[in-house]
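pasting for the record
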Amino acid sequence: MNRQQLEYFLAVAEHGSLGHAAVAAGVSQPSLSQALGTLEKEMGAALVRRVRRGAVLTPAGRAFVPHARLLLRELRRTGEVTGGPAGELDLVTTPVLAVDPCAPLLGRFRGLHPEVRVRVQVTDRDAEVPGMLADGRAEVGLAYLPLDTDGIVVRPLAEHEIMAVFSPDEPPPPDPLPVRWLAGRETVGVTGHSRQRALVGDHLAAQGVRLRVTVEVAHREMVVPLVLAGAGMSFLAGKAARWAAGQGARVRRLDPPLRQRYGLAYVPGRLSPAARALAGLAVAPDDGGRVGGGSFAG
């Protein structure tokens, strides 16, 4: 079993087609099929079943996927020890954190390490991040805290302040905005059970406030346009709130304030040089003086 065989197998698992997997891996389909056949002989089991419209994993193939990810990551890690960061880096985060701090962090990282290919996975549930790290789907996670720390290391980085966002056509709300002022307000909400939604609900409930969700959307990208159009107010964090203000929305801090801490998570002892470099960048101050969580020792 070698690195190439594992890469080809995981490409098939990801793309569901030998042809698409071969294109993604940059090889011919016959070469990919031959490598898969050799891997299956070494494993003593069929891993992939060819079907009319692609390829599906057998039960043995599905069971092998998390092990293949971890084996491949370890092969990459040991192969890069004598050199600098290279290869691929898998990161998992949530939709809000994908915008901030993930996007600027990856911009800085790619500027320093252009040879690394980064794949970002997004989950709506912060609670899924530890499992994705444990089974090898990602090396590094950015999530809101707290997280289940069983088997993972969590490094707090910074926090987002959650703001109330209103249509520019409304009378200007007070600033800062007393939470009790929001009682009965019509609200644009996002479908699902994200930690941010639960946090906002708990914060308002502690002040005896309940909102009416009158518009519920599946995609966060719809929230600001709906608020601007007068469909209701909403809550946004970090850079998303600042962007909404730039589009004309009225953005107000809450009183009492509401802040949500986020951090970096990883499985100790499994970080590749690329993942270590990203983690070190995340906890260090950037050029604007923004401080992460301090020094990174892995």
